[in-house]
Write a structure and sequence with these properties.
Length: 286
Amino acid sequence: MRWQKGRRSQNIEDRRGRPGRGRRVAAGGGLGMVAIAVVAMLLGVDPGMLMKIGGGLIGGGPSSQAPAPTSAQQDQQKELVSVVLADTEDTWRAIFNQMGRQYSEPNLVLFSGSTDSACGYASAAMGPFYCPGDQKLYIDLNFYSELQHKFGAPGDFAQAYVVAHEVGHHVQTLLGISDQVQRAKRGVSEAQSNDIQVRMELQADCMSGVWANHAHRSRNLLERGDIEEGLTAAAAIGDDTLQRKARGYVVPESFTHGSAKQRQSWFFRGLESGDINQCDTFAGSI
Ligand SMILES: [Zn+2]
């Protein structure tokens, strides 16, 4: 990716080295958990589902120990992340303008280990996620190390895809899609609810592809090998790939993010067209 000369976003909140309060409070007497349960009741959701509503990048969480990135590597990743975030701002502002809407920019929180979010306590083990409650993306840069070493998806474009996917969830929130999805999931079976969730995740993958299309057409950001990196990352964090790795077999009804093939094909659809109208994952078969 030719990102080094790109504009840096101002919307980065760097909380690395500052652990979230949730862990200490919870350990002291469960107040953190009570607070989460209260928030959950207010939102009308099962507390266990709280973190899922934000729409993380992966089903389940990475748990193995990948080598921690050095601080120089992390600083470079922070630069990359702020360029990609800035590029998504330019892309989505233009697309929203065309739709006669206004795009409000999300913040991106960099944290290490754990932090607090409006969706509850966030730990690195959950992987990157977006919280609609505060309209912020949360990324622990160690995840990039796992993406490379555990999921076998190295490269700067793989890292960019992660940011663009979470921004996709922000776009869904702004367009009211996330609310519709939450409503649709009430009172349906777990399998149906998972199906809706998969469609939501695949749409975020498609939107990530839409961003890549615009970034390349307008700012010539992509270079040889980038698309392959994105596709490798999309496949590496498909539910089937993760389940096969974790338990040796695959249970499609339990998918919450889509299979490797689905994630690749929706990313590619957004990438080829650059058109969010091509990202209607809720109609028809996926
Ligand atoms: Zn997601």
